[in-house]
Amino acid sequence: MNRMLEVLSCGPAVTVQDMGRPGFLAQGLTRGGAADRLALHEGAALLGQSADLAALEMVGMGGSFRATTDMRIALTGAPMTATLDDAPLIWNASHLLPAGATLKIGGARSGTYGYLHVGGGIDTPLMMGARGAHLSAGLGAAIAYGDTLPVGADKGHETGLTLPADDRFDGGCIRITASMQTEQFDADTQDRFSKTAFLRDARGNRMGVRMDHDGAPFMAADQLSILSDVIVTGDIQIAGDGAPYVLMCESQTTGGYPRIGTVLPSDLGRVAQAPAGASLSFKFVALEEARAIEQRALSSRSSLATAVVPLLRDPATIRDLLSYQLISGAISATENPFTTEE
Amino acid sequence: MAEFPRIRMVGLAGLLVQFGNEMSEPANRAAIAFRAAVDAQNWPEVRETSTSLVSTFVSADLAAAAPEALTEKLQALVATTDWFSAPLPAGRTLWEIPTLYGTDAAPQLEEAAQAAGVSPETAIQELSSARVRVLTIGFAPGQPYTGELPPHWNIPRQQALTKSVPAGALVVAIRQLIIFTNASPTGWRHVGQTAFRTFRPDHATPFALSPGDELCFPSVSPAEFEGIMQGDTSGNGGAQRQVLA
What ipTM is given for this predicted complex? Predict the structure, then answer.
């Protein structure tokens, strides 16, 4: 039987996402892809598969899904309430979704973007080399009730694994570097920017996130005469109203508003995940420190697979204890140095 | 010009080579030619390149690759020639894109003509006979910024945005014309409507235009435009194309 994931109901902003579509900047198309790319790496680590496989990105709330065959799933990103045939599921973990069972994913308890990964990845047709929807460009469409999503062949078999919880879902301090227009803001303005407490505005999406603050607007020296130039993901654009917008993965490729700095790639997930009203601040870091931070983040992403551990559960809370394979075989000693057979 | 070309870091995402701080034809040509030269180097750390009006962006992971080393390579390439007198790219295309000016389809023609200090009839005559060049593709996929129109078309963008113009809208400001890729709010004035699709995600060639291509917008009647809308499903909107020698 074909491996399909059926959509029984769905929030308004659920899309297929992957690592996006690099290579089209010159043609006006930003890379897009998952708003929180670390979540894709986490899902890949939990399922022991490539982070390039596509998953479902769920903004604020998920939906109800049913699999046509047994499937492994993993839940990452913003923690959401999740149940399997009404029994609660642990977030940030991998599980078995048996054929015909109903997976319900509700609202986010913190953060914004939750991810549902399947063993083998979502296998919708490639569009210009990738599967991720880029709605602002008119590529792809949001997932809707009644859709059936093809799922790729799954080479793995382990479930019941988890990763240590991360804290990127409630705002916090965002590290930024200088960009090509930073010096057009005078030293006082840069200093005030880095000392200002911002709140994530309700106006935020995959294109950009607006930051609210009390106090005077931020202005560049030649605010209105700056020539339109390239935008990179993470650029903090000061719009006409003097409020900063962090430009996200689905932004436009060029813009004429000055950029006061650029968010470090490894802190972009924290910006994306901050829910409306979350507190954020921005801290300039020098070039060499920024490079070191990114190198550490890469190394930490690369070793995620070794951070995966079995879920610890209280047997009393496991409703169908007898159906569990309790003796062996659930864990691969070769893939996970932290565990051995029980 | 001593200040340019200059090289700027764009966070950790790459380096920007700027050939000016305002739009000029030689600086635009320099940016396009320099991008082609960078591409021809096949430097392993370069992920992709693009141009804006007067700058070339060289995308590279500057956490992995040393920014100083890439900067030095770019400086050396900058020094090899006078980029401001570089020729236009080879294999450019001329497109003649039928355009319905004014009417309800493009309601700001009269307003734009007034801002440019000409009558609506003169505006149509000037815009439909102008031959403009794609200066850059950006903002939205495949969306061309073209120019330059004669100096009296240096009209400002509107203070208040138009809530939405449709895909294919021909809009004008600051001596430039844009064909919009998608329906969008804009401060540019909507003077004509085309059936030309700048982004065709389902096609083998999703992007119709490249920097350096030339465009004309000949005027057609509402009946002719309706015929094009019904008859041409290719995305070309009735446009004729020829390769420039």
Answer: 0.94
